[in-house]
Specification:
Blueprint lengths: L36 H8 L1 H27 L8 H4 L6 E6 L18 E6 L4 E6 L2 H13 L3 E6 L2 E3 L12 H12 L26 H4 L4 H5 L2 H5 L9 E6 L38 E3 L6 E3 L2 E3 L13 H10 L16 E6 L8 E2 H13 L4 E4 L2 E2 L14 H18 L3 E5 L7 H6 L14 E7 L18 E4 L3 E4 L13 E4 L2 H19 L9 H10 L19 H11 L5 E3 L12 E12 L13 E8 L8 E2 L8 E11 L3 E9 L6 E5 L2 E2 L7 E6 L3 E10 L5 E6 L7 E2 L3 E4 L9 H5 L6 E8 L6 H5 L9 E5 L3 E2 L3 H6 L8 E10 L10 E5 L2 E5 L2 E5 L10 E4 L4 E2 L5 E9 L7 E6 L8 E3 L4 E2 L3 E2 L1 H6 L4 E4 L1 E6 L18 E5 L4 E2 L7 E3 L1 E3 H4 L12 E11 L7 E4 L4 E5 L2 E4 L10 E3 L4 E12 L3 E6 L2 E2 L1 E3 ...
Parallel strand pairs: 6-10, 6-12, 7-10, 12-14, 14-15, 15-16, 19-27, 33-56, 49-70
Antiparallel strand pairs: 1-3, 1-4, 2-3, 5-11, 5-13, 8-9, 17-18, 20-21, 20-23, 20-31, 20-40, 22-29, 23-28, 24-27, 24-29, 25-26, 25-28, 29-30, 32-33, 32-35, 34-42, 35-41, 35-44, 36-39, 36-42, 37-38, 37-41, 42-43, 45-57, 46-61, 47-48, 47-52, 50-60, 51-58, 52-57, 52-61, 53-58, 54-55, 54-57, 58-59, ...
Helix pairs in contact: 9-13, 10-11, 13-14, 13-15, 14-15
């Protein structure tokens, strides 16, 4: 349907004649010859040649037809011939009661050479094309007389329903406006007249097509297509056949959505798929090129395989269905992801459409898989025609033709969307008197008749109507869509333009129907759902605010509601889910292709709530077999258990996704979850959900009593194919261990702390191995100095004096150093039964090797790691028998099969067990003696436990507090029985009643507790960890290993209290007495070390490359003072002041300097913070004695690494006399050690003075004299350029 006259190519034969044998009209042939002189004359006198040829042909036919009557007898003429058989095309449409009957068998053979026949098998229609009207009339006599004839009609014309008085010619202003739209991609409409946004329902849908964003496609929002697009933009498996005038096959906004006949080889001249059509790659042209125009009709038209349009109508229609979305040009179709079959049925000159071509196109569309057929044409009537009496009898034959042609489409459940027409006719009245309006008035369950509304939601003035015959409406006025790109008009705007008519309403509804089918088929069903889609379209339509329209539903189509109702009709709510993460990759510490596999005891309802059963085992399903990536079988547990598979899915586009679970398992034993929320599973084991945007979604599949194989596949919104799920497993957590802050970024040695228990062979199971976590109680603790133990070496290391040990269960842990992983890595393990975890995530599972006779080697999937992170590497093991058990862990520098495997020792280090002397020799840590206690004041509520190591404590103090801090002073000791008020004297005076604190105290201790048991008070506020495992959980002692084979290694012991008052005693009991605190049996590592170039063990620069003097920042205390402590979180002081005092800089001195802030700060309590790196002067690890000189009215504290090496040892006031403090530390050599010095001053002078000296000791190999921390030994963390900046510039 169109408004304007159609321009045609000047060469009507350009597509070839396309004509073959009478019974095979789709075959094509061609011949060439050298023109003769006669041929040249013919070429120069074409019109005269045609007239002469027709005269000769007529004479020949007459000579043949007359003898036929003489020989065969001429059937009698009917008196109503003219009424039954109006003039028209030289084509008959016939059908017989006997399907096998051939019309040519009824007609005398002598006439066959002037007749071509097409058989439409599905509809049992035969189309007979005659060379002349005389042959047709002669043949008709014999056909009419046949007793089996059921349908006999002359082919009749259709109209493309052009609104008669509508001016569709684009004015120069309109052309300019469109050109501006194209030239200004991205300029959007600001809103409608009342200031409200034009596209209120767009929400999460983003469309960048300029005609839409500029508001020219008003009909998209009018029908709520954006609401539908939140669920689906269609799927390529839904195919819409557009029967029209062809289409611009190369239009950039349509070409990508053209249907392609994959079984046809283009251009080889062969009917490859055997469908009767040669080289029908994108559709078919049923009219082809015509050789002349006579009596108002094209004649001798032959089909071709090129449905390229020569006008704009068909392109306009096809674009409304499926113009490509988000390509940054032009417009968007209503269903921009469906495919379009282009079927051209218009003739070459007038653009008229004949019924014979339409019914043949129906047959083709059904044969080639169309699910929707869009028909923007109808029977031709004059404007405003009104039936005042019965229709001519041939209208019954016309109706019967379409009724018979539509019947096989209805049987296949193909939806036919037909235009109601543009003559302003009441179709109810036509139907009453038997007038044919086709195909709209055919009573067929799969047909829907469409009227038009204007931009004001009224019936368009031209639209036909009918309260019982026209089903519903869609916008049909001022509709922008595609035009013929090769239009002679050179302006770019000619590629797009406006048309009016029900021809435009029809493809809009066809697009909505395609979106509806995408949802209806999302649960795995067929796309042939015409009646269901029709019911949904009618039920979901909107009655305009102005009132009912003169149609059956009184409504205008609503795409969003139709899609929603389609989901409801599946008995599955269309669940909406937003992505947890966006971006091309997950920003998680560990990612790899695979599923986390966890088994639980099946307890209660496992599908409507969190899993309540305990964890039995954990494993991994990785991507080593990508073709069956999400095919699950070989379950470890079945009856009485539930298995959960978890991973992340990357969904590339928003829209409707379907997950199919192909399995013999009953549906009621399955559960699917996206982002922790259930997704209903249909009886056909398909679950559908709507992704509100592209990104990463957490998927979980639960299977109760797993036994039968289960294949999980997914269909995306823009695909009709179910594919195995390409899932990614991730970990962003810190892992299983609870360790103190220094251990997070500072590995101490290459030893691996191991916890294990001797068990019977029968107890070494996958379930027992999975339970080997820090929460388990173990009999033994010890150290692996290497992860390269060959068969039998595990037993020798773990049970040196116990030959009866047959099986073992346990785990060990270390960390991977920070490094670049440009190509990823793979881990490989050799063991008899083990699991390898990164940050608590299983990446290798060798559960099957537990009871094998030999160790098994297994490699992980390709692991993608961040270069900025340390990784907790854990190995759980269960081996029986133990004699043959090995444990060998290695890694690769890439993910290729040819990449070499290196021993893990080169990049993995221990952090739980520590040898102080070895750590110093390897320049990984120095040490001091004692217990470090960090106290937290929480302003935003207390956590249940300490899990945020990034926040510094409010105060730091080391116990016992000895005036002369000898590193190995045997006489300096204390007990673990103190309150916060005791270790922070003066804090109680400034603490409001009811205030509580958090405390973490930790150190490294030798071997086990003397008594073998501990008790902690207050118990309900405490947790305790030994060697990274929890030994106290706030209620009961969980057990301390009874055998400790630690050798020279110490293990970390830490206790954490939360929500404790300042006066409550914090007690740790070793048997019946408080645990003894001293400087010899308890060691604290001084980590956070950089090499001479400023790089730490992970290769990250943490220290400046060259000393630059000293930089300090001073703040005034606004919270009061803790008299005996100066080292606390100054950040809170910075935050409490609008601006701290200016940064003081000296480029000439180290920590022997003096700063003056002016007399206004004299006697004012102030803190000066020096932060930097100390460089030890010796060539070998050394115990250093440091001297701090405090001037009058000042005191100093020092922190190295995360350990307080010097507490302030006196109560301060402005008259406090000068003093000296000494402390000792054991430090590595040739390294930079993070150090923080805080001077608290309240002296009468406005100056702040600092001075620290390294004293010479008898063991100094270089006989270095006493040395002040000058620019060689001290480098600040902040550069001199910060002089005028804020405190932490």
């Amino acid at each position: 349907m169109t408004k304007e006259p159609i321009a045609y190519d000047s060469n009507p034969l350009a597509d070839g004649d396309g004509k073959g044998t009478p019974d095979s009209p789709h075959a094509t042939s061609s011949a060439t010859s050298t023109p003769s002189r006669f041929g040249t004359w013919v070429n120069n006198n074409k019109l005269l040649t045609v007239i002469i040829a027709l005269f000769i042909a007529g004479a020949i036919v007459t000579a043949i037809v007359v003898p036929v009557c003489v020989i065969h007898g001429c059937p009698a003429h009917s008196s109503s011939d003219q009424d039954d058989f109006p003039p028209g095309l030289a084509t008959l449409i016939v059908s017989f009661n006997i399907r096998e009957k051939n019309a040519l068998d009824v007609i005398p053979a002598i006439l066959h050479q002037y007749i071509s026949r097409v058989l439409l098998e599905a509809s049992n229609l035969q189309i007979l094309d005659f060379d002349t009207e005389e042959v047709l009339q002669e043949a008709r006599k014999y056909l009419a007389a046949d007793i089996d004839i059921s349908l006999l009609t002359r082919d009749f014309p259709m109209s493309r329903l052009v609104p008669r008085d509508a001016n569709t010619t684009l004015s120069p202003a309109q052309l300019e406006a469109i050109q501006n739209v194209i030239n200004n991609v991205g300029i959007t409409n600001q809103g409608d007249a009342d200031g409200a946004p034009t596209r209120r329902r767009l929400n999460a849908v983003t469309v960048n097509d300029p005609l839409y964003t500029a508001g020219n496609q008003y009909y998209i929002d009018r029908i709520n297509a954006t609401g539908a697009w939140k669920y689906t933009t269609g799927v390529p498996t839904v195919i819409v056949a557009v029967i029209d005038s062809g289409a611009d096959m190369n239009h950039p906004d349509l070409k990508g959505n053209m249907w392609v006949n994959s079984k046809e080889i283009p251009g080889n001249g062969i009917d490859d798929d055997g469908n009767g059509y040669i080289d029908d790659v994108n559709g078919w042209d049923f009219n082809g090129g015509c050789i002349m125009y006579r009596n108002g009709y094209c004649v001798a038209c032959g089909p071709t395989n090129n449905p390229q349009c020569v006008d704009a109508h068909g392109t306009h229609v096809a674009g409304l269905v499926a113009a490509i979305q988000n390509n940054g040009i032009g417009m968007t179709g209503v269903a921009p992801n469906v495919k379009v079959i282009v079927l051209r049925v218009s003739d070459c000159m007038s653009g008229s459409i004949s019924a014979s071509k339409v019914v043949e196109a129906y047959e083709y569309a059904a044969k080639m898989g169309a699910h929707i057929i869009s028909c923007s044409f109808g029977t031709d009537y004059t404007w405003g025609f009104s039936a005042e009496g019965p229709a001519p009898s041939y209208h019954r034959q016309w109706y019967a033709t379409y009724e018979q042609a539509l019947k096989p489409l209805a049987e296949k459940n193909i939806l036919v969307v037909a235009a109601a027409g543009n003559e302003n006719i009441d179709l109810d009245r036509l139907k009453k008197w038997g007038w044919a309006y086709l195909p709209c008035l055919v009573d067929s369950p799969n047909l829907i008749c469409i009227g038009a509304t204007d931009q004001y939601e009224n019936r368009a003035y031209f639209s036909n109507y009918g309260a019982t015959t026209v089903h519903l409406a869609a916008p049909g006025s001022q509709i922008y869509s595609l035009l013929w790109q090769n239009n002679p008009n050179p302006a770019l705007a000619s590629t797009y333009g406006i048309k009016d008519g029900t021809s435009m309403s029809t493809p809009i509804v066809s697009g909505v129907a395609a979106l509806t089918l995408a949802v209806l088929s999302s649960n795995g069903g067929s796309n042939y759902k015409a009646t269901q889609a029709k019911d949904i379209l009618l039920a979901s339509a909107d009655v305009p605010a102005q009132g009912r329209l003169p149609f059956l539903t009184g409504s205008r189509v609503n795409a969003g509601r139709a899609v929603y109702e389609a989901g409801r009709s599946l008995n599955v709510a269309l669940k909406n889910f937003a992505p947890e993460f966006t971006g091309s990759r997950l920003d998680h510490a560990v990612t790899f292709k695979g599923f986390k596999e966890t088994y639980y005891k099946a307890v209660g309802n496992q599908f409507s709530q969190d899993i309540s059963g305990g964890v039995v085992a954990q494993s991994v399903r990785d991507g080593l077999a990508p073709t069956l990536f999400s095919a699950f079988s070989g379950f470890q547990y079945s009856t009485g258990y539930l298995v959960s598979f978890e991973a992340y899915l990357q969904l590339p586009v928003q829209g409707l996704y379907s997950l199919k679970l192909a399995t013999a398992v009953p549906t009621n034993t399955l559960g699917l979850y996206i982002g922790g929320k259930p997704v209903p599973i249909g009886s056909n084991q398909i679950a559908t959900f709507n992704a509100q945007g592209a990104g990463w979604f957490k998927l979980e599949l639960r299977v109760a009593y797993p036994s039968a194989r289960l294949d999980l596949t997914m269909r995306a919104p823009n695909s009709g194919i179910y594919q195995y799920v390409d899932a990614v497993q991730t970990s962003s957590g810190p892992g299983e261990f609870k360790v103190s802050p220094h251990s997070i970024g500072s590995p101490l040695n290459s030893a691996w702390h191991v916890h294990y228990s001797k068990v019977d062979i029968s107890a070494a199971t996958p379930q027992a191995m999975t339970s080997a976590t820090p929460d388990m109680q173990y009999q033994h603790t010890g150290v692996f100095e290497s992860m390269r133990m060959i068969a039998g070496e595990m037993k020798r290391v773990m049970f040196p004096n116990d030959p009866s040990a047959a099986a073992v269960i346990g785990y060990t842990s270390g960390i991977l150093k920070k490094k670049e992983w440009p190509h990823g890595t793979r881990l490989q393990v050799v063991c008899k039964g083990c699991q390898v975890l990164l940050n608590g995530l299983v990446v290798i599972d060798v559960s099957e090797g537990i009871t094998s006779s030999l160790s098994i080697a297994k490699t992980s999937s390709c692991l993608n790691l961040r270069s900025t992170d340390n990784y907790e590497l854990t190995v759980r093991f269960a081996s029986a028998p133990l004699n043959a058990a090995a444990l060998y862990l290695s890694y690769s520098e890439g993910c290729s099969d040819s990449d070499y495997m290196f021993p893990i020792q080169t990049i993995a280090l221990g952090r739980i067990a520590w040898s102080p002397e070895d750590g110093a020799k390897q320049s990984r840590a120095g040490y001091v003696g004692g217990l470090q206690c960090d106290v937290y004041r929480f302003s935003n509520g207390l956590p249940t436990y300490f899990n945020d190591y990034s926040k510094p404590p409010s105060w730091k103090v080391r116990l016992p507090n000895c005036p002369a801090d000898d590193l190995n002073a045997p006489g300096c000791s204390g007990t673990w029985n103190f309150a916060i008020k005791d270790i922070l004297p003066g804090l109680q005076a400034q603490t409001a009643a009811g205030t509580t604190f958090g405390v973490r105290c930790w150190s490294y201790i030798a071997n086990k507790f003397a008594s073998g048991t501990i008790d902690i008070s207050p118990a309900d506020k405490a947790e305790a960890y030994l060697g990274g495992i929890q030994v106290f959980d706030g209620k009961v002692l969980k057990g301390i290993p009874s055998v400790a084979n630690m050798g020279k290694y110490l293990q970390q012991f830490s206790v954490e209290w939360v929500d404790v008052p300042i006066t409550t005693n914090l007690v740790v009991m070793d048997g019946a007495t408080p645990l003894r605190l001293d400087l010899t049996s308890m060691r604290l590592p001084i980590a956070r070390i950089a090499d001479v170039h400023g790089y730490d063990i992970n290769g990250l620069r943490i220290a400046p490359p060259e000393p630059v003097g000293t930089v300090s920042t001073t703040v005034l205390s606004v919270r009061g003072d803790v008299p005996r402590l100066v080292n606390f979180d100054l950040q809170q002081e910075y935050d409490n002041q609008r601006k701290p005092l200016p940064t003081a800089v000296s480029a000439q001195y180290g920590l022997e300097t003096e700063y003056s802030y002016g007399s206004m700060f004299a006697r004012t309590l102030r803190y000066t913070d020096f932060e930097g790196f100390f460089f030890p002067p010796n060539y070998s690890p050394q115990t250093y004695t440091m001297k701090v000189d405090n001037v009058m009215g000042a005191t100093t504290s020092v922190t190295m690494g995360d350990v307080t090496v010097l507490n302030s040892n006196r109560v301060l006031n402005r008259l406090s006399p000068p003093s000296t403090d000494l402390f000792q530390v054991h430090l590595p050599t040739f390294c930079n050690i993070y150090t923080r010095v805080i001077v608290k001053s309240q002296r009468d002078s406005e100056t702040t003075i600092v001075k620290i000296t390294t004293l010479r000791t008898p063991s100094d190999q270089m006989s270095i004299p006493d040395t002040v921390w000058n620019t060689w030994q001290w480098a600040p963390t902040r550069a001199a350029s910060c002089a005028n900046g804020l405190a932490r510039c």
